[in-house]
Recover the amino acids of this structure.
């Protein structure tokens, strides 16, 4: 079964702690993305990666970090520098295929709550 | 700054009604426009549009793009309670073969029996 998995589904964190959200895909997609979704807002891009060992900042990268050591995996770390981390986090991937590269497929998301 | 605006932000209808959701955009280097449906968690892909005037259709859903006026509409006919969801519009920008999407705020559709 091909798809994108994210773990955990729910995560609680105390202020001042770093946490890492997992994202894995077995679709053989080159590109992977992290988005944040807040109530009443659309998705905002945090980081994206088009190839292993390379990634770019999105629109709201401050307080977050990523790595891309394997094609299948793109973990996101929410650091203590992120001022308002409580949100729903979505991971996505897309294939580098002519005409279809913009179609991103999403994982089920991780809901992070800071206590 | 790239901008995607959806309207209305929320909509309540009864089963059987027809709805039209709007998406306008102002971006540099437009490449494509996509529609997604988000029920509880993961957004699921509906359509990708790249050319003006060509309607994409899937069952009761259809969508069209106007690149001159910079907008797209998503139509849903004979709505059902299962159509209740957030509908997201996103625009692909940039010169590479794949890359960033800029999303609108979403339209929350509620269909009552």
């Amino acid at each position: 079964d091909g798809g994108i998995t994210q773990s955990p589904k729910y995560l609680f964190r105390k202020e001042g702690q770093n946490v890492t959200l997992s994202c894995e895909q077995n679709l053989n997609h080159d590109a992977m993305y992290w988005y944040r979704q807040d109530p009443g807002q659309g998705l905002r891009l945090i980081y994206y990666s088009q190839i292993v060992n390379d990634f770019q900042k999105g629109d709201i990268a401050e307080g977050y970090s990523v790595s891309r050591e394997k094609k299948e995996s793109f973990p996101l770390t929410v650091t203590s520098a992120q001022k308002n981390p409580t949100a729903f986090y979505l991971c996505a991937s897309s294939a580098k295929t002519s005409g279809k590269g913009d179609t991103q497929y999403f994982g089920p998301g991780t809901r992070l709550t800071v206590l | 700054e790239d901008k995607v605006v959806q309207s209305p932000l929320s909509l309540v209808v009864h089963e059987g009604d027809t709805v039209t959701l709007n998406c306008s955009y102002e971006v540099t280097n437009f490449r494509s426009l996509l529609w997604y449906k988000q029920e509880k968690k993961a957004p699921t892909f509906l359509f990708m549009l790249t050319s003006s005037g060509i309607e994409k259709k899937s069952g009761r859903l259809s969508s069209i793009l106007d690149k001159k006026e910079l907008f797209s509409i998503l139509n849903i006919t004979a709505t059902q309670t299962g159509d209740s969801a957030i509908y997201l519009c996103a625009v692909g920008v940039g010169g590479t073969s794949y890359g960033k999407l800029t999303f609108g705020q979403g339209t929350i559709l509620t269909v009552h029996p």
